[in-house]
Structure formats: C-alpha cells, structure tokens
Amino acid sequence: MSSDIQIQPIEPASDIDVVVEFPDNRLLIDLCGPFDQNLAQVENALDVQIIRRGNELLFTSPDHSSNEYAKAVVEILYQRLQEGKPLNTGDIDGILRTRPMPSDAELLDGDQIEMFKGGGMEIRTRKKTVEPRTLNQGKFVEELFDKELVFGLGPAGTGKTYLAVAVAVSMYIDGLVDKIILSRPAVEAGERLGFLPGDMKEKVDPYMQPLYDALQDFLPGKQLTKLIEEKQIEIAPLAFMRGRTFSNAFVVLDEAQNATTMQMKMFLTRLGQGSRMAITGDMTQIDLPRGTKSGLVEAERILRHVDGIGFARFKAADVVRHPMVSKIIMAYDKHSKRDD
Question: What pLDDT, on a 0 to 100 scale, did the predictor assign at position 190?
C-alpha cells in the first residue's frame, strides 16, 4: 500500500477509532464512486459507517475489528486505482469475498494487515485481466496452474468454465501449450438436436456457444477467428474426441455432468504429454436419460484421492452473477435436502 496514505488514530472512547487520509483527491472521488455508492457497498457488507470529510475517510463502528477490516478493504480499493485498475461493483464484491472477516478476537495487527492486502491473483489475456472473486475461485485457478488435471465442481454462475478458459488462453499466450481444445457433451435439456436446422456443425454450435462467448472475452475477434481456422483453438462436442490424444494442449470439458461413464473415461485417457485438462460441471443439473449414470459423479468418487489430481468445489456463495442467483441456488438446495 502506498506510504502516502496517512492513518490517524483518534480517541479510543469514540466509535470512530480510525481516520484515513488520501493524498490524491481525484482517486478518492473514484474510490467513493457516484453518490458514494462504492462506500455504501462496503458499509452494507461490513455493518460500518464511513464518513467522508474532505480528503479523509472516518470509520465508525462499535466494533474495532470491523473498522480495521473496512479500512483495509478501502485501502486495497485505493491501491487498485493507483495501479490503474478499474473499480466496479464486482471488483468490490470480489475483494470482500476473498478476504474473510476476522472475528472479534482476531484484531488485525500490522503484519496481518499486510498479509490481508496482498495475494491478488491475476490471469492475463489479450483483452483483459481476470481476477478470482471468491476464495474457491482463487483455489481453482491455483490448481489449474499447478496441476495437470483439475475438476471444478459446483453450481452455475460460479465462474468454473470462464476461469478455466481464461487460464487456457493465458497459458497459450505464454507459450506453455500449443493449442486449446474446448468440449461439451451435446446433450439436450428438454429439446432435441434433430429439431435444429442445418448440418451437424450448425446443430451443435448452439451447445458450444458459452465456450465461444468466453473466448471472445479474452481474445480479439480477428485473432480468435484465425486461431480457430488454423485449429490452434478447437471447439467440438465430446463425441468428436474419441481416438485422439491431446499433446501440449490445454483441454477443457464443460458440462461434464452430462458425460456418461464411458465418455468420461475415454476423455480422461486422452491426456498426452505436456497437456493440461480442466473438467467442470454441476452434479445437480444432470440431463442424461433416466437410469444413465453421470461420468462426472463416478469420476469424482473414483479419482478424488488420486495424487496429482486437483478438485475445487464451489458453493452458492461463490456465484458471481446477480446476487439473486445465489439466493435461488441456496433455496433449491434447501428444498432438495428437505425432499431427501
């Protein structure tokens, strides 16, 4: 954190026990946001009041640890602005999620504050830099960089596929892999492939669209088109993977809960020298015919104790879409457990 920020302790008897002075008033305006909406987001999340007074922020709460925590969050946000990074609602939410609130007994001392401020992980692509927004997302990204085979398991909206594709693009840009292969089972959720117009490619492309969407976030359009034409990036249904071996590639299997046991075993054994593989899926959204076992469920049971294979498990709290999505998922989970 910049040493220019002046922290002025005041009388401990007051609920306001910390005042932070920010030297750059322009950055402070960006930090506060329109109508102080950024400060309001921090206040609502941490149950503190932040008062702006000139180029100072005053932190008000009966709980000293809440004030220290809020101060540390605001300093991280200010540092982002100093580094030229954007600051929006999602960024603030991510910082709050990835740094758990300390208990009253864990008041942050100087060393803990510095540890709290650090550790931001970034995935650099050609169009944008991606940062994990929850602790589980951070663990998933670490596993993707560290291990050759990683499973990302959890509900929709937790960023599993998005982060896997981001890491694939990052590793391709850095020359760590020679190609990217993205796949999904072409299993319908209530509709039939045969009812869609066109040839096979036109029939399956709608099922591959989320993968195209993720790539378009990370690579310029012309470059993406060229890489697909040159087959350095391949997007294809799982059925097209039989008989192949993936060498020096980053391979992502999305919606893996809809792979059968045989398909999953076939796919996992395609892993070749110099390759990485990410398997993502939600075991609560299986669209296979009744009586057909999910290959993802069996793979998790069989491989979870195999050394060198990573597992990242996401929860409803990791949903990074609209906050209502997280509430919907938790409501369905609660309803499902009651039925069981």
Answer: 43
What are phi and psi for residue 280, nearest 5 degrees? -120, 150
Can you tell me the distance from the alpha carbon of 73 to that of 149, in angstroms, rounded to the nearest whole number?
Answer: 34
Predicted TM-score (pTM) of this structure = 0.73
Is residue 317 a contact partner of residue 137, using CB atoms and an 8 Å limit? no
- Tokens representing 12 are 């401990």
Gap between the Cα atoms of 272 and 224, Å rounded: 24
Q: What is the DSSP string of 260-305?
A: BHHHHHHHHTTB-TT-EEEEEE-TT---SPTTPPBHHHHHHHHHTT
| Rounded Cα–Cα distance for residues 114 and 246 (Å) | 42
Task: For residue 150, give both structure tokens.
Answer: 């990683």
* The predicted structure's pLDDT at residue 336: 67
**Alpha-carbon distance values, 69 to 48, 56, 95, 101, 114 (Å):** 10, 17, 12, 7, 12
Write out pLDDT tens, residues 200-248: 566 667 778 889 999 999 999 999 999 999 999 999 889 888 888 899 9
pLDDT attached to residue 201: 60
Smallest Cα–Cα separation from 247: which of 276, 210, 272, 279? Answer: 272
Find the mean pLDDT for residues 24-42: 91
Tokens of 149: 């085979």
Query: Residue 35 is encoded by which pair of tokens?
Result: 């109508």
Q: Which of 239, 243, 252 is nearest to 185 (CA)?
A: 239
What is the rounded CA–CA span in Å between residue 338 and residue 253? 32
Rounded distance between C-alpha atoms, residue 123 and residue 191, angstroms: 36
Tell me if 68 sits within 8 A of 107, measured CB to CB: yes
- Reading the block at residue 52, the tokens are 């702006």
Sign, CA torsion 237/218/134/322: negative
Q: What type of residue is 89?
A: T
**Alpha helices per DSSP H over the chain:** 25-32, 37-46, 64-82, 89-98, 110-117, 135-146, 160-173, 200-218, 221-229, 261-268, 295-303, 323-339
